[in-house]
Amino acid sequence: RIRFFMTFGESYLTHMKCLENVGLLRVDSVEHKGQKIVPIEVLKTLLPDPASLASRTKGKTNIGCYIKGVKEGKERTIYIYNVCEHEKCYAEVNAQGVSYTTGVPAMIGAKLICEGKWGVGANSVCSDFLRSTSDTSLRSMSNTSHSLTSHNLENSSTTLEFADLKESYNTERLEANKDMPKGGEAQGVDSKSGAGVWNME
Fold first, then answer.
1. From CA 169, how far away is CA 161, in angstroms rounded?
2. Range 50-55 contact pairs with CB under 8 angstroms and sequence separation of 24 or more
3. Nearest CA to 129 among 51, 89, 46, 188?
4. pLDDT in tens, 113-160
5. How crowded is the C-beta side of 185, counted as CA atoms within 13 Å?
């Protein structure tokens, strides 16, 4: 069982509770003067851009996961967390701590993939991987999917073509995953099988 935690200041929590009580955190649409609006989108329009607050954000983050399970036959509980200081993050990258702790791990993951040290395509350099047929198929599949969704097509031949592209992509992805540790063979494939984390997400 994995539970994710973040700490928030008392002032932040009080404001959130107040906004919730008056309905401004609602994500469903409501009617206002004959128009449909989503309250939380109105709130987003009214609030300042989060990036503009970075220079005056003070204090530290505390973000972590509380994990309980069985390892090697024994029950184990651990808490993995990070603490980041907003001022130091701003001095380094002009962003506050939450942006830093979101962006930096993803950047490191991308760097490791490009260096061939982690994940799908780890045995080739990034440029080779991006030029591969798998990537071309992925782009084609994505474009076809977008087209089908945008125009709400129900043409059986188009649907069949999309299914063929998807199957082709999955076959190539499984081939690319052959060197994965056990449980990672199906990562990146449209499937619920496969365990573990083998990509930067």
1. 12
2. 50/96, 50/99, 51/95, 51/99, 53/96, 54/86, 54/90, 54/94, 54/95, 54/96, 54/99, 55/90, 55/94
3. 188
4. 777 777 655 545 455 555 554 444 444 444 443 443 334 444 444 455
5. 7
